[in-house]
Amino acid sequence: MAWNGCVSAERGIRTGCGIQLDSSIMQRCANWLSLVLLIGLAACAATNGSERARTRSTETMDPAFRLLRLALNDGDLVVARGLLQGIQNRAPSGAALEMAAGFEQLLRGRELAQGITLGLRAEEHRDDAEAIVALDVFLQIQNQHPHPIELSLDLARMRQLKVSMDAGGSETRRSLHHFLPASQPLRLGAGGRLEQNLGLVELDFGDALARRDRLEIEVTACRVQLEDGEVFSVALGEAQLEWVGRAPWLPSSDLDPEVFLEYIQARRISLPAVLERAVRIPPQQWNETLVALAELAPKLNDGRLGYITPAMRWLARSARPGGDPQVWRLELERHRKLHGSIRNPLDLPEDR
Fold first, then answer.
1. Are residues 100 and 40 part of one domain?
2. Which of 58, 85, 250, 255 could form a cystine bridge with 95, CB 3.0-4.6 A?
3. What is this structure's pTM?
4. Mean pLDDT of the chain
């Protein structure tokens, strides 16, 4: 029979390539195609069911995950650990399980960083005339964990805020910052502590009577490796240090606040003499001096109080509230209420 594209039930089917297939073979092929189609449909249904299950699993735990995010944003790691433990106890699956694992890694890193504390220390460098010319700055790192760690400071920034005041009461403020080079791996034993030298900070007084420098270091990226080789990338926060110094041609001895308070009540005063006395008061007594000034302020007229505002700005570590004596009266009263009731740490408690 010549090939004309017709189907013969008795003899089978010819393909377009001239190959003749038996009808039984064609039946088996049809059965296989049906089976493959059924398997595909079942797989699609299973996939959709799995996705729905993953969605349901995540949705039922959404409130717990939202609270967990809030706790982490607030830095409350104790609450965050309790919430995550509650989620894990519910045996999450699918997407919820993946989210819980991600939060576990994040929380472990935060807990690890919390047990690593930073501090700053400075040593004064003097010239041949014993004048202070620089500060040698050290970063202090302490491991509070009961196991050793190895850390590398990948990204750290140092900021220096300099405030200087001349004999006329004018203040100059300058801010500098630079990034520190990445450190070599530093190993700290359990409860261990080490210091990393950060270099010299130059001090130039020029015409200033005094200057104060606030040094800040912020470690925003640090790799911490545990004994088992697990590595975490964490932020360690910041550390601060304040240094206060006087011009080398001023007397080196500190001055009792009473000397300053007595002088500003004299009949005639000069601003350079007021400032010379103010900058010789030790920083740990500045709050005490401002409280005493608040009690003395009602006895001073506006002219006298306005005249000594540069000294008050220095003692208050602030450029505000400017030179308005009325505003300063309010500021001194606020300071008295805030610090006036603080007991001297050397005072003994009263008998009860």
1. yes
2. 58
3. 0.70
4. 82
94-111 as b/e, with b when 16 or more CB fall inside 10 Å?
bbbbebbeebeebbebbb
Q: Which residues pair with 179 in a beta bridge?
A: 157
The CA distance from 25 to 21, in Å, is: 7
The torsion angle over the Cα atoms of residues 184, 186, 187 and 188, rounded to 10 degrees, is: 180
Residues forming a β-bridge with 196:
139
Which residues span the domain enclosing 275? Answer: 257-339
* Average pLDDT of the segment spanning 79-88: 90
Of 218, 246, 274, which marks where a domain is finished? 246
- Do 283 and 307 lie in one domain? The reply is yes
Token pair in block for residue 261 = 């308070």
Look-up of token digits 């034993």? 189
**Residue 263 shares a structural domain with residue 335:** yes
242 and 267 both lie in a single domain: no
| Distance from C-alpha of 50 to C-alpha of 42, rounded to nearest angstrom | 12
Give CA–CA dist 241/123, Å, rounded.
Answer: 12
